[in-house]
């Protein structure tokens, strides 16, 4: 194993004032810059859980980030020692945020990505679109184009044969169409040779002040021992994560009428 050494920091000039820092990085330094990425605290609120290493140096765990959004799943896998080798997201605004954080821009529409364009990887991760299975989205399931995007995941799993996968969706996926939709998904994953585990997890049970329930599906090519993380006591409150009112510049926010007018009046 090659040893990694930290580069020597140049001594500051005597006649040069130290630049002020904002959120742990130099002022005017973008989160996506190489220097910012070297400082993992830019992207984290808490230390890495479960004894995971804080560095990607020497990591052998390669993963791809599909339906990446703004990179929530990527953060967790990187904190566990993984290295992202490919990402895909079609939403323009989401890709801008993703690039600002991680320094690389996701590839676009997954339906236009060829199997040969996807590098080899150990883990496929993806929060495939949930609108087709949610109550607000109309619950059309596979009858909604967004609901069929799971089969793009199946296509890549079949072509690349990663050792494991991690999928996420709304809890209503489990009960959609009296459980038939979820049954089809699990059967397709098992037919690819994966040992599949699933559970509905609530963010509230992992020291996050938000009731956010999601079904998490994991699978392994081998029948590896697997345990779900134990619940953690809730120590944070909403007040600990919200910005104080006096720090919010309302000019940076824009809402469509009538909500915008109502918000300004209040």
Description:
With 266 residues, this protein is of the alpha/beta class. The protein has one domain (44-238): Vaccinia Virus protein VP39 (Rossmann fold), CATH 3.40.50.150. The chain is 23% helix and 16% strand. The protein has eight helices and eight strands, in the order ββαβαβαβαβααββαα. The protein has a six-stranded mixed β-sheet, sandwiched between helices. Strands 1-2 form a two-stranded antiparallel sheet. Helix 4 links the parallel strand 5 (123-126) and strand 6. The chain is globular, with a radius of gyration of 21 Å. Residues 1-46 and 48-56 have low confidence and may be disordered.
> Total helix count?
8
| Topology-level CATH name | Rossmann fold
CATH architecture: 3-Layer(aba) Sandwich
The beta-strand count equals 8
Helix/strand class = alpha/beta
Q: How many domains is the backbone divided into?
A: 1
Oligomeric state of this protein = single chain
CATH class assignment: Alpha Beta
Listing every helix as H and every strand as E from the N terminus to the C terminus, the arrangement reads EEHEHEHEHEHHEEHH
Unreliable residue stretches? 1-46, 48-56
> On the 0-100 scale, what is the average pLDDT?
77
For this structure, what is the CATH homologous superfamily? Vaccinia Virus protein VP39
Largest β-sheet summary: 6 strands, mixed
Proportion of beta-strand residues: 15-25%
> Tell me, what's the shape?
globular
| Helical content band | 10-25%
> How many angstroms separate the termini?
60 Å
Strand order of the largest sheet: 4-3-5-6-8-7
Radius of gyration: 21 Å
């Amino acid at each position: 194993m090659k040893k990694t050494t930290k580069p020597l920091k140049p001594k500051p000039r005597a006649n040069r004032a130290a630049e002020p820092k904002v959120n742990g990085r130099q002022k005017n330094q973008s989160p996506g810059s190489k220097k910012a990425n070297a400082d993992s605290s830019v992207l984290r609120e808490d230390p890495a859980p479960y004894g995971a290493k804080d560095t990607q140096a020497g990591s052998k765990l390669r993963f791809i980030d599909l339906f990446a959004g703004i990179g929530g799943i990527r953060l967790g896998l990187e904190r566990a020692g993984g290295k992202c080798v490919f990402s895909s997201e079609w939403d323009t605004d989401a890709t801008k945020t993703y690039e600002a954080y991680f320094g690389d821009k996701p590839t676009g529409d997954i339906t236009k990505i060829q199997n040969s364009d996807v590098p080899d990887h150990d883990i496929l991760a993806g929060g495939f679109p949930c609108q087709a299975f949610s109550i607000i989205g109309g619950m059309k399931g596979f009858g909604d184009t967004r609901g069929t995007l799971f089969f793009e995941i199946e296509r890549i799993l079949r072509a690349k044969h990663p050792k494991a996968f991690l999928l996420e969706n709304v809890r209503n996926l489990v009960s959609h169409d009296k459980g038939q939709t979820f049954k089809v998904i699990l059967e397709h994953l098992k037919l690819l040779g994966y040992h599949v585990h699933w559970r509905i997890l609530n963010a509230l049970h992992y020291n996050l002040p938000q009731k956010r329930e999601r079904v998490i599906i994991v699978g392994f090519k081998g029948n590896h021992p697997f345990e779900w993380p134990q619940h953690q006591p809730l120590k944070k409150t909403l007040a600990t994560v919200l910005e104080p009112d006096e720090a919010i510049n309302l000019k940076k926010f824009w809402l469509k009428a009538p909500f915008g007018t109502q918000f300004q009046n209040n």
